[in-house]
Amino acid sequence: MDELELLHDDHSLLSSQVVHVVTLIKSLRDSGHIAASHFSEVLRQMEILRQQLLEHFAFEEEEAFPRLDDKYPTIRFKLEQLQAQHDGVLVAFEALRSVLWADTKEPRVPDPSASCDRFESEFELHAAAEAALLRELATMAT
After folding, report:
1. Beta-carbon neighbour count of residue 135 at 10 Å?
2. Which residues contact 4 (CB under 8 A, 6 or more apart)?
3. What is each CA distance from 70 to 43, 48, 50, 65, 129, in whole angstroms?
4. Predicted pLDDT of residue 1
5. Three-state SS for 35?
6. Average pLDDT over residues 99-118
7. Is the pTM of this model over 0.90?
8. Which of the residue ranges 41-45, 62-66, 87-91 has the most confident prediction, judged by mean pLDDT?
9. How many structural domains does the chain have?
10. From CA 105, how far away is CA 33, in angstroms rounded?
11. Segment 80-98 mean pLDDT
12. Is residue 33 part of a domain?
């Protein structure tokens, strides 16, 4: 089924960007000092991830989920749960982003660990729930 394959592929790309950004942020914490170029790269990658999250969630909510709901009305509740998780992921992302964007003139970053962990956890929860639903739909489609 095309929707399932597209969702899976898109989620794989998004997951790799999440891992990349989380790794960059954790390296900020682990380094003894913050190089301005490293900090700028973290902010740049955060903006790329923000755009990817917004586009991915919009695609799911406006295109994929309605099609899946039409084809498999028994999963409507699960689709609604996934859509609600989008808000949790975005709230956690914005909280992390606000910690990092607090003062871009002087790269003075407070320890972003808690915000980073929360975002990573929210995203992983959503990704696991979506992967489980995609596996379920794949068996329904055959």
Report:
1. 12
2. 134, 137, 138, 141
3. 39, 32, 29, 8, 20
4. 47
5. coil
6. 70
7. no
8. 87-91
9. 1
10. 15
11. 95
12. no
Report, as an integer, the average pLDDT of 45-67. 93
Q: Is residue 8 part of a domain?
A: no
Give whole-number Cα distances, 138 to 5, 36, 135, in Å: 9, 46, 5
Question: Could you list the residue range(s) of the whole structural domain that residue 118 is in?
Answer: 63-142
Give CA–CA dist 53/118, Å, rounded. Answer: 16
Which residues fall within 8 angstroms of residue 111, CB to CB, at 6 or more apart? 29
- What's the chain's average pLDDT? 85
- Flag whether 137 is in a domain: yes
Least confident range from 7-11, 24-28, 72-76, 91-95: namely 7-11
CA distances to 9, 53, 56, 106, 114 from 13, rounded to whole Å, are 7, 11, 10, 32, 24
Give the separation between CA 80 and CA 75, rounded to whole angstroms. 9
HSE-up of residue 13 (Cα within 13 Å, Cβ side): 12
Residues 6+ apart with CB under 8 A from 25: 42, 96, 100, 112, 116
In a domain, 89, yes or no: yes
Residue found by looking up tokens 């729930």 in the block: 129
Structure tokens at 85: 């998780």
